[in-house]
Amino acid sequence: MDARRPRKPFLALGCALALVAGAAAAQPPEPSAEHARLAARSLLIAVAAAGPRLVAVGDRGVIVLSDDRGRTWAQALDVPTQALLTGVCFLDEAHGVAVGHDEVILITADAGRSWKRTHFAPEAQRPLLDVWCGGGGRAIAVGAYSAYFVSQDRGESWATRKFTPAPPPATRARGESVGTQAAGGYHLNRIVSSGDSRLYIAAEAGHLYRSEDGGASWAGLTSPYGGSFFGMLPLADGALLAFGLRGNLYRSADAGATWAKIPTGTVALLDGAARLAGQGVAIVGLAGVVLASDDGGRTFRLLQQADRGGLSAVLAVSDAELAAVGEDGANLISLEGAPHGAATAP
């Protein structure tokens, strides 16, 4: 990394995504995102596919689009917020949802070119941190202090729900009741799906949750450690990865019933992941960490990026190329020529 190059504040990756201290009270309608020539180089937090198009969201309401697999990007035309956007998903090639701080929720019907605000509550002082899009117009937004919103109409309207998961199996065996795990209002950092019915949530303080009915009910999973999780990645045949603070990465072969720790060779926070062709998996994190696996997440090799810019989310755009977003905006990362073998420290 060039020591002369100032690092931008990376306030939104990892733990900082859940910080809400000092949030503003209710205000007049927020102005739209400003257009910037270098929007694709600004802080970006999440990326999703809208058919062949890539859509990335980030700081001050910036949303950028790519129609050439991440090689070039253009800023969205109209985004009615300047809040930090933290999650984005698409129900089909045209309809999508983005969420962020100030409890803002935006929807698009034209593959991300323009957006409409359908929820906004800065007075709540809790950011939304991620969003899942399912079939039949369903969407679920999650965030700080167990914020949990559901929509049945492609994000046009939202209803808040109390997040009351059943305790993990070992806790249930001791007779604790439904809702015990929600008592602390844990931050819900990431929501992902394995099919349209089984969903997972990665949360703070070592909490993991699974739903078998599309989010109608949730149960805690037995956690392999007590630190915060910032992502999960469902794999084939019920396998699952969970990752978070200090390079901690765990693999389950039974949908989260039991876990095995996977060496990573890093203590950087891990917060984004994607499946590649065959048994391929990629995980990204702070300090320019990229972990690559060719065996379904059983072993990883560490590909340390030279600039060490923090990465927050990733999508596979080919068998050996990733579209990654983070501290320095959108970038392409090649996995070709990387050495195989177990992860080792740089």
CATH class of the domain at 262-346: Mainly Beta
Number of strands: 27
What overall geometry do the principal axes of the alpha carbons give? globular
Report the order of strands and helices.
Answer: EEEEEEEEEEEEHEEEEEEEEEEEEEEE
Task: Classify the secondary structure makeup into a structural class.
Answer: mainly beta
Q: Indicate the low-confidence ranges by residue numbers.
A: 1-12, 14-27, 173-183, 338-346
- CATH fold category name of the domain at 262-346: Thrombin, subunit H
The biggest sheet amounts to: 4 strands, antiparallel
Instruction: Tell me the β content.
Output: 35-45%
Q: Level of helix content?
A: under 10%
Name the average pLDDT. 88
From the alpha-carbon coordinates, what is the Rg to the nearest angstrom?
19 Å
Assembly category: single chain
Describe this structure in words.
The protein has one helix and 27 strands. It has a domain of 85 residues: Thrombin, subunit H, CATH 2.40.10. The relative contact order is 0.12. The strands form seven sheets. The chain has a four-stranded antiparallel beta sheet with strand order 1-2-3-4, with no helix packed on it. It has a four-stranded antiparallel beta sheet with strand order 5-6-7-8, with no helix packed on it. A four-stranded antiparallel beta sheet has the order 9-10-11-12, with no helix packed on it. Helices cover 1% and strands 38% of the residues. The protein is an all-beta fold. The N terminus and C terminus are likely disordered.
